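Per reviewer request, we include the raw input and output of the structure prediction for the construct analysed in the revised manuscript.
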Amino acid sequence: MASSQKFNIGVVGSKKAPSGAEKLDTSGFFTGYIRVSGGIFVDTAVHDIDLTLSFLREDVVPKELWARGLIAHHHDLADLGDVNNAIGVVKFWNGTITHSYRLRTTVHGYDNCTGIIGSKGKVSVNLVPNRNRVQVVQRDGYCAGCYAELD
């Protein structure tokens, strides 16, 4: 069963609380692309934002948000008002708080994971890349790729 199904049927309980990284690109392509990318969150987090909103489903209107970043490479990003690495925090009107780490500087390549923490447990997607990237954590521990009561 997909992570969104597990989350939406209440496996982890009430909704209480994505992260992504991309390989450092030292090619000339990145320098040109970054000028029109829309900034680190539009460039690297647009699908994570969609995923977050689909998990939350109701009352998904943001109330407040904060973002901070730094330049660890490509120092010409300062001229564009952009960064290599950033964190964003969003508080929604229903009290839910989400956060997203964004990095453009990994040496191992693209890496994207999501975790939802609830009052009864946690659903994690792609913490360690493998065939089935869904894990459920509850009182009895971890379950990867299985959940007998739901199958």
